[in-house]
């Protein structure tokens, strides 16, 4: 780990969590007009530190951690009064967006021989929901009114090569996911991976028209017209030509896989990859506009499995950064604490990426999220009380991760995991 690279990272941390910048953000969104003991800077660092280092079940947990980090004796009521402000979630969301932009670097890259090396970015879009206190059902109505009358959903776009967030939107769980899909023109030159919720023919046609590519799971009720049908081995099935898909569904199980050229009149032309699901005894469908000469049927199926990376990130959030329902009936507090938990998750994942690049070992973000609490508090104390020690605490934290958070099966990753398509880890200074 070279000193000059570590020095650059330390300066970046100081800029991202500077007192001047965070207090300035607080004033800009009118969260804080006059600087008192609980400044935006102190509150932000206190909340991120507690969410990153311990399970948070109550506001009192956050209050006690704030006093410990800041060396203060602030009483519960004035602390609570800051969180209940209408601008508290605005402040925390603004900080989260800043960290999304700043705490990111390339951690994965396709080898030049991989056909996927042509893409400048690979966007995985999905959502995750969880219940909040039932008294918030008017502000955050849930889809399942009897089980979870109040719930929120986070609509997330994850960029695979940086493993960083492009966008995050917080809405009531009852609101449809499709309204928060990436804008088609932002996908130019990239690849879009999504579940069947985003199989919207006009939307996919727009992505294609803007020079983007997609692999999206399709619903079982689709019925396009087949223009050409190929077996897994590449042999043409002429009897399927110019037939609607429903006419041939009963014959799909006879084939290992099918690669079809299909059309929905007036909306979309695409490839349809059909594989058989023996467990559920039904066909599975992937719709893509990737050209057949460059991308094989197997590569498309393997690429779609990369969508699982966003599900693993959601699991990290809920298991290791206290992203859950909070014991509060105040909507502003609930929303602000969610953004604070996301800030902590972003920081922990970025530390994992730094350890990989600077220590040149493959790092598991899940393991890093599990063990960072042992060393992360030292970084926050240095940021707040002794900034000359930030570089030293960062060095210790990254060295600790390099020894305790390495990926368990790097060979398996290449053989059948996320590196199968030619992805490789990126090492060196960010």
Task: Offer a few descriptive terms.
single chain, 430 residues, alpha+beta, 2 domains, 9-stranded mixed sheet, two-stranded antiparallel sheet, 15 helices, 11 strands
Short description:
The chain is an alpha+beta fold. It contains 15 helices and 11 strands.
Topology:
Blueprint: H1 3-16, H2 19-28, H3 40-53, H4 59-70, H5 76-83, H6 88-102, E1 108-110, E2 122-131, E3 151-159, E4 164-172, E5 191-194, H7 201-209, E6 213-217, E7 225-231, H8 245-248, E8 257-264, E9 268-277, E10 282-288, H9 297-305, H10 308-320, H11 331-359, H12 365-371, H13 373-385, H14 390-404, H15 410-415, E11 423-425
Parallel strand pairs: 2-5, 5-6
Antiparallel strand pairs: 1-11, 2-3, 3-4, 6-10, 7-8, 8-9, 9-10
Mean pLDDT over all positions: 95
Strand order of the largest sheet: 4-3-2-5-6-10-9-8-7
Looking at the structure, what is the overall shape? globular
Alpha-carbon distance between the two ends: 12 Å
**Order of SSEs:** HHHHHHEEEEEHEEHEEEHHHHHHHE
Largest sheet: 9 strands, mixed
Strand-pairing-aware structural class:
alpha+beta
Uncertain runs = none
Number of domains: 2
Tell me how many strands there are.
11
Gyration radius (Cα, Å) is 24 Å
Explain what the structure shows.
This protein is globular. The model has no long low-confidence stretch (mean pLDDT 95). A hairpin with a 3-residue loop joins strand 8 and strand 9. Helices cover 41% and strands 17% of the residues. With 430 residues, it is of the alpha+beta class.
